[in-house]
Amino acid sequence: MQALIVIDVQMDFCEGGALAVPGGSEVVESINALMPEAGAVVLTQDWHPDGHSSFASQHSGKAPLETVEMDYGTQVLWPDHCIIGSEGAAFHPDLDTARADMVIRKGFRRDIDSYSAFFENDHATPTGLAGYLRERGIKELTFVGLAYDFCVAWSALDAAKLGFRVHVREALCRAIDADGSAAEARARMESAGVTLG
Ligand SMILES: [Zn+2]
């Protein structure tokens, strides 16, 4: 069985949001159109407490897109975004959330970020999604959503490492593309055996 994994199609990642990904809302209708043919639909939702450690505002002298060293590795800093319960954390109002079998929230621990739908940014703490998919007999995953070069790519790379067959529908993703990050993500996914297109 194949699952459609819709990454972070939330207000803060769309136009006018706190961490807007260019063209973010353009993908919503085409993602909805893919849902009926999917064996399962999983939505992810970036979901941070106030004062999350990935926010530049928590690191004096740091601006968004600068980095800090955390005990789990290098962390890119972001504007405050997707605060638990806020309007910015809500799904895009046109996304067909009724079709979702499962909504997985990530990044809810203050001291660690989670780009991937499978592991927090230490690459070790699981979100539980792999177990859910395996228990349902799902072996093939199609990823769409925001942002291509961060949460989509990290999720796809983890999924490939976990042994799923992984496809990323690039036309249904949008990238932040800071400093060539989209090309870098693409190269990493290609070498990990992720099917792109
Ligand atoms: Zn976040």
TrEMBL record:
<comment type="pathway">
    <text>Cofactor biosynthesis; nicotinate biosynthesis; nicotinate from nicotinamide: step 1/1.</text>
</comment>
<dbReference type="GO" id="GO:0046872">
    <property type="term" value="F:metal ion binding"/>
</dbReference>
<keyword id="KW-0479">Metal-binding</keyword>
<keyword id="KW-0662">Pyridine nucleotide biosynthesis</keyword>
<dbReference type="GO" id="GO:0019363">
    <property type="term" value="P:pyridine nucleotide biosynthetic process"/>
</dbReference>
<protein>
    <recommendedName>
        <fullName>Nicotinamidase</fullName>
        <ecNumber>3.5.1.19</ecNumber>
    </recommendedName>
</protein>
<comment type="similarity">
    <text>Belongs to the isochorismatase family.</text>
</comment>
<dbReference type="Pfam" id="PF00857">
    <property type="entry name" value="Isochorismatase"/>
</dbReference>
<feature type="domain" description="Isochorismatase-like">
    <location>
        <begin position="3"/>
        <end position="194"/>
    </location>
</feature>
<keyword id="KW-0378">Hydrolase</keyword>
<dbReference type="InterPro" id="IPR036380">
    <property type="entry name" value="Isochorismatase-like_sf"/>
</dbReference>
<dbReference type="InterPro" id="IPR000868">
    <property type="entry name" value="Isochorismatase-like_dom"/>
</dbReference>
<dbReference type="InterPro" id="IPR052347">
    <property type="entry name" value="Isochorismatase_Nicotinamidase"/>
</dbReference>
<dbReference type="GO" id="GO:0008936">
    <property type="term" value="F:nicotinamidase activity"/>
</dbReference>
